[in-house]
């Protein structure tokens, strides 16, 4: 996604000084060995990425439901809200079992996506929303494919399987709006962000504060994948 990340199972913290790029410099390093299979730095990074992606995309879906000027844009918003809520529930479940501390906010870069879209209206919002979501989900597919290829942890694999299905659904939904700027998508997907690591890393949750939960809609049609070890 656009955004953007030992050693016992009970102490897998998410330190603010370890950005995605820094952790991924040794992606195959095993950081824990739970019953569900070896957990690598890349696996841990992926779980955090899933959480971070939902934390910015879910409110964008809510914006699309409120501000979308066409039925297709509002339908895309429904898909984002429903899918992100279900995937977040699966992510929190997996993280709890694996001892991975999750952020309560997306990365600064992802926060900028939400802030920008929050100021836009009409056709500008519709087009920017569709293009941004399409680009970030296209990028995330590459990450998911890498995890499905390499992970030996069954919980992480289940999460990646569900993420793959939901990301493909989100891509289909925004493309149906007919508003995706594919030239811009190509630029965003192929150009590395010229940003410091901290801009691509979600801040760690503040101790003592409740975990943010993405509430599913009353008419949800997506269920979290089973992630019991």
Largest sheet: 2 strands, antiparallel
Distance between termini? 27 Å
Task: Determine the structural class based on helices, strands and strand pairing.
Answer: mainly alpha
Q: Count up the helices.
A: 7
| Helix-strand topology string | HEEHHHHHH
Q: What is the residue-averaged pLDDT?
A: 87
Taken from the alpha-carbon principal axes, the silhouette is globular
What are the segments in which pLDDT stays under 50 over at least 5 consecutive residues? 1-24
Radius of gyration: 17 Å
Strand content: under 5%
Question: Into which percent range does the helicity of residues fall?
Answer: 55-70%
Number of strands: 2
Q: How are strands sequenced across the largest beta sheet? A: 1-2
How would you describe this structure to a colleague?
This protein is mostly helical. 57% of the residues lie in helices and 2% in strands. It is built from seven helices and two strands; from the N terminus they run H-E-E-H-H-H-H-H-H. The chain has helices spanning 20-23, 41-67, 71-98, 108-119, 122-150, 154-175, 182-190; strands spanning 30-32, 39-40. The chain has a two-stranded antiparallel ribbon with strand order 1-2. A hairpin with a 6-residue loop joins strand 1 and strand 2 (39-40). Helix 5 (122-150) crosses helix 7 (182-190). The longest helix is centred in the middle third of the chain and has 29 residues, at 122-150. Residues 1-24 have low confidence and may be disordered.
């Amino acid at each position: 996604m656009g955004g953007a990340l030992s050693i016992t199972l009970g102490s897998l913290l998410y330190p603010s000084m370890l950005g995605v790029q820094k952790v991924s410099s040794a992606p195959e390093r095993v950081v824990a060995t739970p019953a569900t299979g070896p957990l690598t730095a890349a696996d841990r990074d992926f779980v955090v990425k899933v959480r971070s992606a939902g934390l910015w995309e879910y409110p964008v879906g809510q914006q699309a439901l409120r501000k979308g000027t066409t039925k297709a844009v509002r339908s895309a918003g429904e898909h984002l809200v429903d899918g992100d809520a279900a995937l977040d529930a699966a992510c929190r479940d997996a993280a709890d079992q694996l001892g991975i501390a999750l952020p309560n906010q997306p990365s600064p870069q992802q926060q900028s996506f939400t802030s920008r879209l929050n100021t836009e209206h009409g056709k500008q919002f519709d087009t920017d929303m569709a293009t941004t979501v399409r680009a970030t989900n296209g990028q995330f597919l590459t990450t998911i494919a890498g995890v499905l290829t390499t992970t030996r942890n069954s919980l992480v694999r289940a999460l990646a399987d569900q993420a793959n299905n939901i990301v493909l659904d989100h891509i289909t939904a925004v493309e149906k709006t007919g508003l995706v700027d594919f030239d811009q998508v190509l630029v965003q997907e192929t150009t590395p962000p010229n940003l410091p690591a901290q801009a691509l890393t979600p801040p760690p949750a503040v101790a003592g504060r409740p975990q943010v939960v993405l509430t599913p809609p009353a008419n949800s049609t997506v269920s979290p994948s089973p992630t019991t070890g």
